[in-house]
């Protein structure tokens, strides 16, 4: 019975992720949802700023804190290593849902693209960025990234495994294509409101900090990551960087 509960837990966490991702597309893209990030302001700007800054801080503390190696070790000791990823996914989704539900629109337009063709191109970039993130997740094993493989292994009475460095496809050109996609999602807006700008700026700052902390953990766990980091750029492809399998001069 315990094995089935663990499997259900992992599948449930993944289902919550899918629903959160779909809602996020609508929330940030101003489609499908009743109140998006660019909705009309409901409370004074000062109050909205405090609420929104607190929500961003909450998300950063949860998402970044649980990703750190000491926390992962503690979680593995308390619940078993194969549940750590599913728990992280579920907690991150809850944090993101909280941000979207309680986010306070602030009104005000920072920029607005008037040309319809340019506006459509920006919308295409927005949806393309979401596709990029999902594609990049499948390149490095989508089921493992979101905890499904781990709980399935436990269900089949298998053993969990340690981290390993994989650099297929896009990962041979940039180290963090998923973060790159998320940055494009944040800033690909034909109409940028004050509310959207605050969200995009806060999340961008968080991601740049998180990349630094994440890479520090990876270097500690994977000695070969230092070579990968030296030869492959972080977010933007560069002809001056060499692929991992190219010999040093």
Quick take:
With 249 residues, this protein is mostly helical. It is 65% helix and 3% strand.
Describe the fold and architecture.
The structure is a single chain. This protein has 249 residues and is mostly helical. The protein has one domain. Helices cover 65% and strands 3% of the residues. It is built from 10 helices and 2 strands. The longest helix has 28 residues. It is globular and about 55 Å long.
Secondary-structure map:
Blueprint: H1 2-29, H2 45-67, H3 69-79, H4 84-102, E1 109-112, H5 116-139, H6 142-145, H7 148-155, H8 177-187, E2 191-193, H9 194-221, H10 225-231
Antiparallel strand pairs: 1-2
Helix pairs in contact: 1-4, 1-7, 2-4, 2-9, 5-8, 8-9
How do the helices and strands follow one another from N- to C-terminus?
Answer: HHHHEHHHHEHH
- Beta percentage is under 5%
For the largest beta-sheet, the strand count, sense and barrel status come to: 2 strands, antiparallel
| Total number of helices | 10
Low-confidence segments: 243-249
How many domains is the backbone divided into? 1
DSSP summary, beta strand count: 2
Mean pLDDT: 89
Approximately how much helix is present in the residues?
55-70%
Span from first to last CA? Answer: 57 Å
Envelope shape: globular
The strands making up the biggest β-sheet line up spatially as 1-2
Global structural class? mainly alpha
Q: What's the alpha carbon Rg, rounded to whole Å?
A: 20 Å
């Amino acid at each position: 019975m315990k094995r089935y509960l663990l499997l259900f837990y992992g599948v449930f966490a993944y289902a919550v992720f899918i629903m959160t991702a779909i809602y996020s597309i609508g929330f940030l893209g101003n489609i499908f949802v009743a109140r998006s990030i660019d909705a009309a302001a409901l409370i004074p700007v000062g109050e909205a700023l405090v609420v929104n800054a607190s929500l961003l801080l909450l998300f950063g503390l949860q998402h970044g804190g649980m990703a750190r190696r000491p926390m992962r070790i503690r979680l593995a000791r308390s619940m078993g290593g194969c549940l750590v990823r599913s728990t992280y996914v579920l907690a991150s989704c809850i944090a993101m849902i909280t941000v979207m539900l309680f986010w306070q629109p602030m009104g005000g337009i920072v920029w607005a693209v008037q040309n319809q063709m340019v506006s459509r191109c920006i919308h295409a970039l927005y949806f393309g960025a979401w596709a990029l993130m999902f594609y990049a997740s499948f390149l490095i094993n989508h089921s493992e990234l979101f905890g499904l493989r781990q709980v399935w292994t436990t269900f089949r009475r298998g053993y969990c495994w340690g981290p390993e460095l994989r650099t297929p496809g896009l990962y041979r050109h940039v180290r963090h294509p998923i973060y790159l996609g998320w940055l494009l999602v944040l800033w690909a807006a034909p109409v940028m409101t004050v509310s959207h700008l605050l969200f995009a700026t806060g999340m961008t700052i968080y991601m740049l900090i998180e990349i630094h902390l994440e890479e520090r953990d990876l270097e500690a766990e994977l000695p070969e990551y230092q070579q990968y980091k030296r030869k492959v750029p972080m977010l933007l492809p560069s002809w001056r960087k060499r692929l991992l399998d190219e010999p040093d001069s």
